[in-house]
Design a protein that fits this description.
With 114 residues, the protein is mainly α. It has 2 domains: 41 residues, no CATH class; 56 residues, no CATH class. Helices cover 50% and strands 11% of the residues. The two termini are 14 Å apart.
Length: 114
Amino acid sequence: MVKKWQYNNNINFERAKEISEKFNLGLLASKIIASKNLTDDKIKVFLEPTRNDFYDPFLLPDMEKAVDRIIKAIDNKENVLIYGDYDVDGITSTTVLKNFLEERGLKIRLSYTK
């Protein structure tokens, strides 16, 4: 499979330069941010997020059930298999979860889609 990278040609270069100077960013990052048409407040949150800037994970369906099951696995010292996507965010998220659960005494195995 051949993939072709595409980028937005409709970048406001003056805005990109302004973002670069204001937020001390390289021009490439500034162009990407400028193409998103973000306000300065949104750019600040994007570059320096706090825990208050994330969505409440309990808005996801059945999150409470998932948390309860993980707590049960921790309490019972169960072996756990984490199944994730074999892409950048999948590997990253499964690794974060693996480290978190291992710190709580669980034995973890990983499996990925391809």
